[in-house]
Amino acid sequence: MKFGINKLLTAAALALGTLGAFAADPIKIGSVLSVTGPAAFLGDPELKTLQMYVEDINKKGGVLGRQLQLVHYDDGSDAGKANGFAKRLIDDDLVDVIVGGTTTGSTMSMVPLVEKANIPFISLAGAVVIVEPVKKWVFKTPHTDRMAAEKVFDDLKKRGLTKVALLSETSGFGQSGKKETEAVATKYGMTLVANETYGPKDTDISPQLTKIRNTAGVQAVFVFGMGQGPAIVTKNYKQLGITLPLYQSHGVASEEYIKLAGPAAEGVRLPAASLLIADKLAANDPQKPLVTGYTKSFNDKWKTDVSTFGGHAYDGLMLAVDAIKRANSTDKSKVRDAIEATKAFIGTGGMVNMSATDHMGLDLSAFNLLEIKNGDWALAK
Description:
The chain is an alpha/beta fold. It has helices at residues 2-23, 40-59, 79-91, 104-117, 145-158, 172-185, 206-213, 229-239, 255-261, 288-302, 308-327, 332-340, and strands at 27-33, 68-74, 97-99, 121-123, 138-140, 163-169, 191-198, 220-224, 246-248, 269-272, 345-347, 350-352, 368-373, 376-379. It folds into 2 domains: 22-142 and 287-362, Response regulator (Rossmann fold, 3-Layer(aba) Sandwich), CATH 3.40.50.2300; 145-272, Rossmann fold (3-Layer(aba) Sandwich), CATH 3.40.50. The chain is globular and about 65 Å long.
């Protein structure tokens, strides 16, 4: 009898140990980012942000009593590689949620996989096509390319400028931006008198800019691209002596753009989130504590400047964590539903209010129009 009781006690202990092991399993956050390649100045701060906050959350006890585990891959700014890594995250790593791709191309290559696998996916890319039409399992944190065009056109209208030259990159982000800019031009009373493109790896964009300079009636130039290309455009613009107002999209909302473009960036205007002007926000701005806190933490940890791209990663991770907490579960359907039900979530990109018809949750008021003055960001006037 005594032997039988001991066996029972041992079996019970083993069962409890097994349950304890399961309870302690980490919550796996998958990520595919463009840490190298043309989009590296987006992907690098995204990865740094995810690493920093996963570490911070784990030090504070994790989520639902479990540690977070970040499983990440670098697609090298190659959409084809992003697809392969997404498949690995889903099939081999068995992640609970995915935060990232960095670029629109990478994101869209991953979308069919996450939709088929029924796994929550929060993209860090800009194009409106990511969330329009709505895809059940796909969300995004940055403002859309359409919103960027609207913000720029609104400013041009205020300045009495209606004839615009559009110069867009042939990447997924640039071409989506081109399409959206063309679509909203009429709404704002704008005429695109020139419409040129350049490749993301081009090292000289003077020919396209020369054509724009020689186009009759051009009053301003709007560039839609990301990575190093827009900085090359800005330098070429200055070298060619073009003095028309120059606008960029939110694809360059980073100190890195100012560093790469140098003095040529002076006077450039672009739409961006409040993160870049954290120290200039009013004391009662609801974003002030968050963006100043993020800026200090990022600067202290990495000894480098913040960018809105790192902010997109912060928002993506925290939206996922917030949803897991509210769902009180890592059940993928429950987490998906919780993300979609997000209301009044303060992120670096603005206040997020998701719904069944809006998987981004930001409106135009979340964008600021900035101008580069003396090598720094300032609110455009």
